[in-house]
Amino acid sequence: MRNFFAHKGRMALSAIAVLLSVAFVCGTLVFTDTMNTTFDKLFQATSSDVSVSAKGASDSGETTADDGKPPVMPASVLGKVRGAQGVKSAEGTVFSTSVTVVDGKKDNLSPSSGAPTIVGSWNGNDARTMKITSGTAPKGPDQVMVDADTVDKHHLKLGDEIGVISAVGTHRARISGIAAFQVTNPGAAIFYLDTRTAQQTLVGRTGVYTNINVTAASGVTDPQLKTNVLSAIGTGYKVQTAKETADANQKDVEGFMNVMKYAMLGFAGIAFLVGIFLIINTFSMLVAQRTREIGLMRAIGSSRKQVNRSVLAEALLLGVFGSVLGVGAGVGLAVGLMKLMGQMGMHLSTSDLTIAWTTPVVGLVLGVVVTVLAAYLPARRAGKVSPMAALRDAGAPADARAGRIRALVGLVLTGAGGYSLYQAAGVDKAKDGSLWLGLGVVLSLIGFVVIGPLLAGGVVRVLGAVLLRAFGPVGRMAERNALRNPRRTGATGAALMIGLALVACLSVVGSSMVASATDQLDKTVGTDFIIQSDNGQLVTPQAVEAIKDTPGLARVTEYKWTKADFTTPDGKTLDDTAITAADPTYATDLRTKTVAGNLKDAYLPNSMSVHEKFAKDHDIHLGSKIAVAFQNGSTAHLTVRAITSSDVVIDQGAMYTSIATLAKHVPADKMPLDQLVFASAKDGQQDAAYKSLKSALHDYPQYTVRDQTDYKQALKDQIGQLLNMIYGLLALAIIVAILGVVNTLALSVVERTREIGLMRAIGLSRRQLRRMIRMESVVIALFGALLGLGLGMGWGATAQKLLALEGLKVLDIPWPTITGVFIGSAFVGLFAALIPAFRAGRMNVLNAIATE
Question: Is there a contact between 800 and 509 (Cβ–Cβ < 8 Å)?
């Protein structure tokens, strides 16, 4: 206890590292638990006792039809439901999420957070969770009611005109009312029409419903009511209890939540790993500084176990202190994340803040266990100090044999990691290589950590020769200080190495993906413009007509996607297999590689193409016939006219037929909408056509017109955003690593107090002293950066070899990023040295010389 409080200042940075890591874990758990609570409340509040949906609707009620319209059932079903035993009331509703809503200026009112835009009929079930705060509910085709959050976000008011764009067309109405959620709205934009108008706007006809909300009579359970409703209406409909509907909705968001949760916990784990180095260094240096004290304790009767336990007890106190503060900081971090999500459009109320009892327990256990484990080696080293050796020498005795063993183990691990990466780069299947890659990453990382002290000697000397020698004696002293204890320098640099290795690896992978996709676009895409929705909405017929009417275009190619049941020549039936239908000009717009036949022939009547792997798996050759039972259509017997290569990036694994063939076997009202549309300008009219297309689609803001340059930039931006988010999460580990550099320098200054006093006494100025410490910090940071960037580029290059098996064949090293990170590491070293250098410069020379 006395040692802990005597060195509490030196423990502070280690405590901060524990605090940050625990805060990130607890903050992640609280944030994701709160989101789950919010969605649970929403789904429970909005679910009727029993709901009936049309065939084809998903379990969560979302629309799934590829014609852009929601699956519907006839109004006669409502009468049957009302006649079922145990039904108190039943109400038919219509809603769709395949819509876009615009204001009077044609600006999109859909959420930017990825939450859905819902347009539906105002009904009694919604009235339970929505309160009309202004105006009235919609009562005619010219009226619409909007949720209060959307009104506030877009500064709408009563009387404003909005347009609802669906597969049927565009319907315009004026805001007649504003309704506020009675539960937390996670960010959806909701618009209500009267029932008849909703049917006409979303489906194109009256007398149909997408859902029927059923309320149970008193004493009737939901499962019993479901059974009664099924008996009344028969098969062919989806009937769910309130719990089943809520569970299905929760399952839809659960996948995203779990990915986010475990990704954030993974980065917290990296921060913990980096923090281990900080704690090991802290206790190693504290033990070294107390070597004589430990010797005296041993001389007067303390056993090795007592010395060991005393160091571990200090670690336990540090872990408990840092973890308790970390749990509290984690709650604050969760609230901050909720506020940030609010800025992005996803509203989360702090009244739903959920702190499970397991969260603080997990935080405390992790923080304490990691801290104690990290302190075990220094504690063991302290217990092995010989009393006589300690009384003779103020420093910790070096263990040359242990150093040789460590170097040998490090070399073996590094070699094994390198071999695994080599094996990963040479496999024929990406799935097989991923195991080798994972093993190589782990082994090479551990190997570099273990071999760090051996590498420090060589790398620091090279850095010193390049960077420090120009500063004369001060630079040489900084180099020698970094080399004085290679184990300490290696551990400090390794903490920074881990974060930067991941940054470098992901940078290489991301840059290679962009370069490969760009290369494929240049080689295969022969169209000028690509028109599509960035949020996955299909292209409506009205928008397609607007594109076709655009002046200056030489051709327009429609691209549809649907599902079908395939019966192959080998007698196998493959259900729900994807097939792409496009205009014959698509063979020109996409110059995809074929291994047999000509892709243009796949667009002949009753013809198709298959990809190479599919052909091999089912013994398909040119001229083979495949029975294709189209979804919502009849069965066609299509002849295989082309076999495309599976070694492509764009449309990998696609099988093509013509839109004319699809239309021959699927009714017009069931035809799928276009996924995207390609357009090519007449010679010399590219710029004019580009502007004309944007103008033609002004009324359809959900679609984006891109030329090839725009498309490449969009790919780069998407991957860049993902990488920036990952870099932001890795910043936690890098911050902890910086704390490690600060702590190492601070303790090193204390350790060298008398030495610093002597140097000052013989003429070293304060400015030179500060410069020496800053240079030492810079060289340690650059040592870690060199190891991390080199290791990360090796991982990234190996990962690219696996991506090449999937068609991403271009290896691109982002040298500007790598160089920027390396230079940034030097500034990190300068920043980390500010406080230790300042404190060293303020030392009293006489007091420093008198220090034992």
Answer: yes
Tell me, yes or no, whether 687 and 712 share the same domain: no
pLDDT above 50 (res 394): no
Full-model pTM = 0.81
Mean pLDDT of 244-269: 81
Listed in sequence order, the residues at least 6 apart from 628 whose beta carbon sits closer than 8 Å to its beta carbon are 564, 565, 566, 567, 579, 608, 635, 636, 637, 638, 657
In a domain, 722, yes or no: yes
Answer for the pair 430, 754: CB distance below 8 angstroms, yes or no.
no
- In this model, does residue 421 exceed pLDDT 50? yes
* pLDDT tens per residue across span 649-689: 788 889 999 999 999 999 988 899 999 999 999 988 999 99
Please report where in the chains the tokens 């984690």 appear, as a residue: 330
Please report the pLDDT score of residue 585 as a whole number: 93
Q: Measuring CA to CA, which residue among 20, 548, 532 is closest to residue 275?
A: 20
- Per the structure, the complete domain to which residue 329 belongs is given by 1-47+242-397
Percent of the chain with pLDDT strictly greater than 70: 96
CA quadruple 47, 51, 53, 56: dihedral positive or negative? positive
In Å, how far from its chain's centre is CA 815? 24
State CA 131 to chain mean position distance: 36
CA distance 70 to 61: 10
Contact 609, 643 (CB under 8 A): yes
69 closest CA partner among 48, 96, 31: 96
Quote the CA–CA distance of 202 and 136 in Å, as a whole number.
22
For residues 709 and 521, is the Cβ–Cβ distance under 8 A? no
| Residue appearing with tokens 């209890």 | 241
Q: Are both 369 and 474 inside the same structural domain?
A: no
Q: How many Å apart are CA 455 and CA 293, to the nearest integer?
A: 32
Co-location of 548 and 661 in the same domain: yes
Of 696, 704, 678, the closest CA to residue 545 belongs to 696
Mean pLDDT of 529-551: 90
The answer to whether 98 touches 114, Cβ cutoff 8 Å, is no
Burial 802-825 (b: 16+ CB within 10 A, else e): bbbbebbbbbbbbeebbeebbeeb
The amino acid sitting at 74 is P
Instruction: Please state, in angstroms and rounded to a whole number, the distance separating the CA atoms of residues 209 and 224.
Output: 23
Same domain, 92 and 204: yes
Yes or no: say if 669 and 543 are a contact pair by the CB < 8 Å rule. no
- What residue type is assigned to position 433 of the chain? G
Instruction: Tell me the C-alpha distance between 389 and 663, whole Å.
Output: 91
Same domain for 220 and 155, yes or no, is yes
Q: Is 707 helix (H, G, I), strand (E, B) or coil?
A: strand
Smallest CA-to-CA distance from 9 within 754, 832, 839 is with 839
Is 542 found in the same domain as 647?
yes
The structure tokens listed for 852 are 């034992």
How far is residue 773's CA from residue 826's CA, in Å, rounded to a whole number? 13
Q: How many folded domains does the chain comprise?
A: 4
Question: How many Cα atoms sit within 13 Å of 96 on the Cβ side?
Answer: 30
Sign of the dihedral defined by the CA atoms of residues 41, 46, 48, 53, in that order? negative
642: pLDDT strictly greater than 80:
yes
Closest CA to 474 of 845, 770, 831: 770
Maximum distance among all Cα pairs of the chain, rounded to whole angstroms: 103
Q: Do 815 and 669 have their domain in common? A: no
User: What is the model's pLDDT at position 739?
Assistant: 81
Residue with tokens 């000509």: 598
| Residue 26: pLDDT over 80 | yes
Burial (Cβ within 10 Å: 0-12, 13-18, ≥19) of residue 727: middle
